[in-house]
Amino acid sequence: MTPILIPPPQFKLCTTCRKPIPFASDYYQCSISTCNRKKTALFFCSVPCWDAHVPVLRHRDAWAETARAPTRDAFMKELEAEQDEEAKEERMTDDSQTRRRIVGAASPDEPVPEDVLVVVSKLKAYVKARGGMSTSDGVTDVLSRHLRALCDKAVAHAASNNRKTVLDRDFEAVLKKET
Ligand SMILES: [Zn+2]
Ligand SMILES: [Zn+2]
């Protein structure tokens, strides 16, 4: 699956003059860390070439650092390691995407959460005070379903009145219709 790596004819091209920087030769790097980010690193064949980029990127306190280009073999090993790393990362993103598909983020088509919408302890306390009875747990599901149905109707009522807020009068209108 991994594509065959073709060794490049040189380590890098000079960022400024595009002259090749051969393997195992000295080159110059900028002291500013943003000039050395992995994917966008800058390489210079000489100090004048390094000098040329300083005003362009408006460095205030920068200098050229000498570095030694790797040998072709070392460079190829590095490339291979990077490729493996990238392949691994890709596999990981694939996995997490699959997971995301299974878990699923809320979208308009997906069902809304069916949470319990009543305060169970208060409900049980009320029933107890009213009739001296205990309340079975299944009751909260039935009541929650009922509240959801009422909410759906109130939302529709608010929408038909061009509102983006559900008001108490939406519920009153819905309840009046029901009784
Ligand atoms: Zn150069
Ligand atoms: Zn720089």
List cofactors, ions and other ligands: zinc ion
Shape: elongated
Enumerate how many helices there are, as a single number.
Answer: 5
How do the SSEs run, as a string of H and E?
Answer: EEEHEHHHH
Question: Which class of secondary structure composition applies to the elements?
Answer: mainly alpha
Strand segment tally? 4
How can the largest sheet be summarized? 2 strands, antiparallel
Mean pLDDT: 86
Number of spatially distinct domains: 2
Contiguous low-pLDDT stretches (5 residues minimum) are: none
- Biggest sheet: strands side by side, in what order? 1-2
Range of helix content: 40-55%
Strand content: 5-15%
Determine Rg (CA atoms, Å): 34 Å
Roughly how many Å apart are the termini? 68 Å
Short description:
50% of the residues lie in helices and 8% in strands. It is mainly alpha-helical and 179 residues long.
